[in-house]
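User: Sequence in, structure out. Go.
Assistant: Echoing your sequence, followed by the structure tokens.
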Amino acid sequence: MDLRKKISIIALAAASLLGGSASAQKSLTIMMHDGQTQTFSTEDVQQIIFSGPETTIEKQGPFRVDITDITSTSATMHVYPDDKTVAYYYDVCRRDTYERYGIEYLIEDFFNEIASINPGFPMSYFVNEFTSVGDDSDAIVGMPSDTDMMAYAVAIDQQGKCVGDPTIVAFRTLPPGDPGDCTFDIKIQDVSSDAVMYTITPSDLSTKYWHGVLSVNDWPGDYAMTLEMKAAVEEVAAERGALVEHLVDNIVHRGVCANWIESGLQNDTQYYIYVYAMDKDGSAAGPMFKKVFTTSLYDYSDADVKLSYRYFSYKDLHAAKPEQFPYEDVDRVVVQAVLTPNASAQHYAWVLGRGDMTDEDTYPEDATKDAILMGGYIDTPTKILYADWDVPATFLYYASDYYGIDGQLNRLLVNFTREGAMPAEQFSEDVTTTSAPAKVNKLPIEPKTATSTILSRRQAATSLHYRK
């Protein structure tokens, strides 16, 4: 329903209510948005008028333009052209922008800029992409609150030029809500070792707010954080000779802040994402909202390598293939391992280490990878290995991509039991490039102790973000 019709219906209903007898209706109580109530005697009320956002036709061209559902930051624009075959462009702008430049300049400058950053395409391509034909409507969002706006529609030729008269309709967005009532939803999209990507959605899109990331160890407290930020705003304003109010307008966000990336963080560290409504003087205009996250210890590539293996009894192989396995007194495990890298892997390394090496604290990833490079096999797809019965061993393997970024270290603990050995007749050297067995040795890794160095934590500096 059209907003003006809806307002008229409400007004008529209220007037009818007040028109009853004095005995039937003695008072009228109004509940305000802030929870306060006001009561009036019907004997003192002559008329109730509901006022709402109004639109005014500034210039009538060959289009009918209706503006509905006006809020503090959005509205719905409907365009009905007289000629349903004409291509046209429509949008909104601030009144002061319209009065300074004019609609024709704004539209033609828009098409020229789009064409300049996309060379090689004819102007007609962009005209077809950005114009409409026939009736159309769209939700216009992100407008400033309590501001005079101009909605316009005008025909466009294939060169991006305005044709004929535009239709221009003036309206004003509603005042912003109380920032103290605004709540914020913080969603984390991705966390790496030195960065986080997140989205902030305010309950009131007209609210101006500040957000940032700071380590939990450096957090001074909610109120103290807002005071530090206010002092930083005042200091920067003084340095630049700017008004604090103007500086605040440049650094705050309005509406949804989507996929914001904060980088330069310390790995394996707890941080807060924090956000609060900011007043024009840089102070907090509402409560603090926070969400905690922890950066990862490592960043990994998609590069990986797949391991498959099987094992046999050396004694059984000696009995079946004495020429290849000639030692009668050997009672060990013969392991056949096959490594297959994925499409992202440029290089890979692997080894079979003696003992259980799956504990990441005792055998940290960086040190273990260095040991694999020193004592293992690089870019070797197959190998025959010797191991011992009923003694734990660990396959360790990983890959790196074209840029030299490692994938995650894989750890596979195995225990070679006689019951799990393959029959000797199934042994084949087709899966291996060498028949010379390699011993399984203890890798040169120094276990990490409880007194190892703790990761240093770097203070995340608070900064003022300026958006173009």
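User: And one key feature?
Assistant: The longest strand covers residues 162-172.
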